[in-house]
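Q: I'm writing a short explainer about 2110_t:CDS:1 for a general audience and would like to include a description of its predicted shape. Could you first generate the structure from this sequence?
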Amino acid sequence: DGLRPEFAAGTPDCYIQLANQCMDKDPLKRPTAKEVYKKFQEWKIILNKSIEELDQNQTKIQNKFLNADEIIPTIRPTQKQHQD
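A: Of course. Here's the predicted structure. Afterward I'll give you a sentence or two in plain language.
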C-alpha cells in the first residue's frame, strides 16, 4: 500500500517529478495521457536543440538528460526479493 519505486542516481529531477505525479494516490491529481505525451514531446524538442537555442531552464533539462545517458551504462541492475 503506497509503495513507490526508487529512482536511480542521476535520474533527471523533472522526470522524477512527472513520475511521482503519475503515481499520485489521488487519481484526479494525476496528469492525463495527453499531458504526459506533451511533456515527453517538450523534452524531445529540448534534447534535439543546440545549446544556443535554449533558455537557462531548458539548458538545465537538457544537461540532466544527457548526464543520465552517461550514467545509465554504469548502473548495475539489481533484483530485490519480495515476500508474497
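A: For your explainer, you could say: Residues 33-73 form one domain.
Q: Perfect, that's easy to follow.
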